[in-house]
Amino acid sequence: MYQINVNTNTIQMNNNFVDKHKLVETTVDSMSNYPFVLTPPMDSPDSNMRSPPSGSNSPSHTYIPQGVCQPLYTFPIPMDQTQGFAPYLTMGEEPVERFRFRYKSEMAGTHGSLTGKNSDRSRKQTYPTVELHNYDKPAVVRCSLYQYSREEMIHTRQPHAHRLVRKQGSEEIDDPHDIHVNPDSGYVATFHSMGIIHTAKKYIVSELEKKNKKLKLEDVARNERVCRPLSKKEEQEIRSTAEKESKSINLNIVCLRFEAFKVINNIYFPLCPPIYSSSINNLKSALTGDLKIVRMDHFTSPSRGGKEIFILVEKVTKKNIKVRFYELDDEDNEIWSDYGRFTDLDVHHQYAIVFKTPPYKVLDIESEVKVFIELQRPSDGARSEPKDFTYTPSKIIHNRKRPRFTSSSYSSSNFSSDELPLTINNLPDTQEYNFPRPVGQTFVGPNLVVNSEELNEALRHDKINSAEFEKLCNSLITSEPIQDLYADLTAEDLRSLVMDAPKMIDKKPVFMLNTQLPSAHYGCTSRSLRNLNSEEQKIVTKFKDELVAFVKTNPPKNRMAMMLENLFENSAYISENMETTLHMLVSENNQTYLPFLLKLLFKYQQTALINMRNRKGQTALHLAVECHNLSAVDHLLYTKANIAIQDLEGNTVFHVAVIGNAPLEILKLLCMVTDEHGCIDTINYEGLTALHLAVKSNNIAATKMLCWRKADINAEDKKTGDTVLHVAVVDQRLEIVKFLLENPDVNLEKENYAQYSPFKLARLLLQKEVPVTEQIYELLENYMRKKGSFQLVVDIKEEMEELSEEEMDIVSERLKKEQPMSPDDLREKYSQVTTFTEDCLNEVSDILDKSGTWHNLAELLDYGHLLRTNIFASSKNLLQFAMKKEESIFEIRNFLENLDEFEAVDCIDNMVNKLVL
């Protein structure tokens, strides 16, 4: 029988209960440290709660260490009266150190349960076991899942958000798990058939809250002698504690907590302090295993796969390693997985792997798919910490569903009498609009206002051509700002514009900030990206002609909107590069027709067309930023151009502005748009944010602007894990380092994939003896001391000083941005070398003679029969004989690599690199 749930019925306690039991008042912590602590953790140096040695007559622990604060409330612990010693628990069998935490979706079927540390597959399995001492009555021993910590704290560890599930038939029961012990069982409790289920991040708070409520209900019953529901205040305290714990919980390490209780009227009274097991590490996590991805040269792949990727890793065995891709849904259930393609020859020196990506389950995706990549060791199932990976669409696909209209279709006979306006003057007068601009921004360029009367008069002439129409647009554009056109739109109208976002875009449209920035004047020089070719010029001319012919018919609003959609989506008006007329006008920096076209799009609520993308995935806003056209950028932003769209390289307009060193005024305009979805921190397909690019290019003005706009200063480079501070330190950007240290959010302790913090990197780079590096190091050291991280500074210094000169050289090489040579390139290079140089032959021979592995090399070369005749006196004789037999240098090199003779391999590689430039 297992007593798990708390009885919530009211219990009438015996009035003489307290008189019949000697009670000890035991201190507990406040709710902020709930559940309550009796002694320091067992692994703490200050802890007296050690299991006594076998045969001991008394425990070595005490209940209340010196200096413990006064209790907020207490609960009784019955004492054994016959022996005079307090009961205590000891560990009989610790759990295994590493165990796979499974997701809920993986629990179907049979899986291995949590075994004991001394389990051996060749004999009977053991399981976590505890024994209760100094007690001779029936009791209950409980096992629960708790957080593991090595901190020297006097309060207990908190419950863990993961679930400790125990199989009972076909049912799965959550912790706590109770086992009844008595003299017949020897007071030994063995917990078998238990598994750990990984709790998804979105459920951590609720799981902690649920567990702490159970514990609080038991505590209330003990203290008040009655079971009652929790008050709202108590529930709020538990909720607050759970939210706080969720921010620091380690999801990869847990431990077991064991307690002993005496049960009276369904109320559990502790017999002794709890004890804790050693840590149980998640077998799938790099934090508790040896597998680790240190660096990737790409973190994206087309959905069809086949992209070659280089990754640097911690030491792996080529015959016992896989690169695994997988996808999780919102519930953290795995919904797809596959493996990278590579051979043993693609594992370079045990520290690099070259592989090709597998195809995604859907070959023709229309938007990015976020997945994960990890290393997997088949022999024991160990996995590395997963890294983000993205599958991208192979190409941009435009929908062209609407029928093409021609100018012959635009006669008044095609419209009913109620659809046809009497005159074009029925359109609202644009001079009456008053659309508010963001505070602090001025506009000195062209606007998008057209006088209705003059347009009506001009359109009376049937033979007006595109050139004349362009001239008309130019003459009718005044000095008023674009937003004045739409001041008479109601708030409801503006909201409807927001809802009419293009369906091809996942993110919602953006809004304007009310924050003041320095005015952006049109002092920067626009540049034409390119001149339109003859075919593109024909498209633009045809576009104008069709638009003029249609406008002459005085169409109603819905017909005008349909026409604009047709002109943008019909293949007849799209170039071979999949560019619309809007793209072409921006590319050639057309200052005349572009504002007028944008006015029409905004006027008839067709702003979705502004965000159409060309073959490179670029919108008109991408091109406007690229050609430094401040006026066009301003017009496009006011007509709801989407700043969140990424091109086929993953770049948003923020990336484009930094890459193209656009004038600061353009970046200011982009930063004035309300960023509801954090697109300023979007990662491009090189793994970089716009802030990373600004720091790499030493653009301190752009760096300051992006930081002002709350760009994430601690965002990771998806290839290396570097933050912008890592980049600034490595690239020796002194002024940028100074600026970044002024940001209160900067994290000097954040490590990259190679486990180097910015301060560790600065310490490592001191060996270069560059004055700038020394200044950067002093800045970081002083900053950390001021922040109270003096001990961390000392620890890092000691850690770095423990590295040998050889290890420092290896680490320095790892910091270089060189990629390993692919197997094909390596084979081609070796094909040009047929013999050893004298120096290389002597050096490799010395290495092999010392290790004795040249005998193994002889076997691999099929010279084993000669080896047994003692024909080879040394490794040099073997290598010389191999050269006479025209054995491949490349084959010898690979055999040595398989024998882990990496020093010899490096020597041969260096020889080949010198001979073949």
From TrEMBL:
Residues 39-62 are annotated as: Disordered. GO terms for cellular component: cytoplasm. Gene3D superfamilies: Ankyrin repeat-containing domain (1.25.40.20), Immunoglobulins (2.60.40.10), Rel homology domain (RHD), DNA-binding domain (2.60.40.340). PROSITE patterns: ANK_REP_REGION, ANK_REPEAT, REL_2. The keyword RNA-binding does not apply. Residues 84-287 form the RHD domain. GO terms for molecular function: DNA-binding transcription factor activity, RNA polymerase II-specific; RNA polymerase II cis-regulatory region sequence-specific DNA binding. The keyword Aminoacyl-tRNA synthetase does not apply. This is RHD domain-containing protein. It comes from Ignelater luminosus (Cucubano).
